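Before a colleague's protein record goes any further, I have to sign it off. Would you go through it and say whether the fold makes sense for this chain? Take the sequence as given and treat only the tokens as open to question. The record follows directly below this note.
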Amino acid sequence: MNKIDPKQKFSLWYLIGVAIIVLALQYWARTSTFETLAYSDFKTLLQAGKLSNLTLKDTTISGTIDLHDTQALLPADTWKSLTRNNQLTHDFITVRVEDPDLINQLQTTRVRYTGIMDSHWFTTLLSWVIPTLAFVAIWSLAVRRMGSSGIGNLMSVGKSKAKVFVQKDVAVRFSDVEGIDEAKQELMEVIEFLRTPEHFQKLGGRIPKGILIVGAPGTGKTLLARAVAGEAQVPFLSISGSEFVEMFVGVGAARVRDLFNQAVQLAPCIIFIDELDALGKVRGISGLTGNDEREQTLNQLLVEMDGFDSNRGVIIMAATNRPEILDPALLRPGRFDRHVAIDRPDLKGRERILSLHAKRLILAADVRLDIVAAKTAGYAGAELANIVNEAALHAARENKQAVEMSDFEVAIDRAISGLEKKNRVMTAKEKETVAYHEAGHTLIAEFSKTADRVAKVTIIPRGIGSLGFTQQLPTEDRYLLKRSELLDRLDVLLGGRGAELMKFGEPSTGAQNDLQRATDLVWHMVTQYGMSETLGPATLDKHHKLASIPGYSETTGNEYSELTAQSIDAEIHKLLQCSEDRVRTLLTIHQQELDLLAQLLLKQETVDREELSKILAMKKDGLHPAFQTSIT
């Protein structure tokens, strides 16, 4: 549980304490050592001549009572209260009521009295001034303690929340960014402009006003922007797109104006807006007005960028992983002129990223970062950094002196399928089902022409729903896949279910994720890639693109007829059925290897590449000699 910052903790007990003090002061001011006397008793004692030294005020009458022979004149409780100290006289006070005959009666009884005007300043001081000062003091204390994250931020609601990093604070350089060489090269021109703007201005050139960095999450968009600021040695104003929009209408637009005013004062500098899609989403095409505040903020940003002079030395950079939903007005020339795409790193890029993050580690001699890079195809920079960190943590848990290759293997397995659940209890029948399921995936991958080879197969449960997994090792990075290669991948996905059908005669629920991925793959083949012989070279899946536009209704429907939809369903069913037939045929041919691999998985739970190669090298008439005794 996170501890509460004392500067942000404000207790209601402060208010309660002040209220108690004020009430106590008022009670003390209104209470005296005089006994309170009923006005009727006062009149009786006055008539009897038992009162003296009266003081008449606007609201009270006070004086002295002579207690000789007064017991019969007073109620028993009043008499007892007045005589508890055995004194013959006692001071009193009573509330003055409207009595026109009082002065005449005082003159008749010849009682000495004086009149005094009431002074209300002390009561007023206690009732109003002191409480007001106390509450002001408490309010000031609360504002100071809560700071900019609490009440103190209310008066600055229109101020920009941009975090300003001056030159000495931006320690990131291009040497800290690996795997995206093309993007770095494209941004070198921006750095040169910020360093020597006169070089471009004398030739009449104009630097782009805005640069939009596009890439998948974790590919290093924010890191690259900070590296640009670090290389140029200029201030860096960083803010997220969501920080512009508040519940108050007009606040976002005010913050945009304030941000650009700050940038002009700090020029040359870089404005960086992270997650631009939170602010720059395409404006609604419906009649709804629920996003007026966001649209006003976007309009103000468009106005500021349109009237902004890039020659002032201010570069606007932004990052997003959803460029398809940005408003077209943001992307036109004159605003975000240049788009820098950051792709996931290739094999060499992953190896350089791993080397960069592994510099701070003590590595054992057996560590091969090139192999780690080969096993992490498709991973972004942030994911690779996490694998390096997980490997170091695992080595520390095992009390090792250096991070070994086995620690990287554990980190990769954890990143793919989650943490091992060795304590999860499965029945013998379930373990056998999982073993044949994973063995089916493995053999189909090994005997398909274009499928990636298997590096390891295990039946140890991992993560939330995974009861085992088959790890394939790509031989190279692929950017294009042919139809035959996609069909081989489809066969691998259905290989686990095919093995269950062959061994047990019925499938289990363990194939749910495989079926989902297989269906998605076939859907893309038919509707996006034009790989259907029946439907031909057509792209039919436009529905998902329109759904990202605000105001678009799901009920609009697809852009093809019901007959075409039936053809799509039939083609998907055909591809899945043909794949299942191929899997059944291939597993029937290699049933001996299937049984052998499944039994080995039941015995030792994990089979690596070396042991798998021994199984695949066995002869049809018996086991491989070197492997004969390992499963007995």
User: Anything to note?
Assistant: The radius of gyration is 42 Å. The longest helix spans residues 562-589.
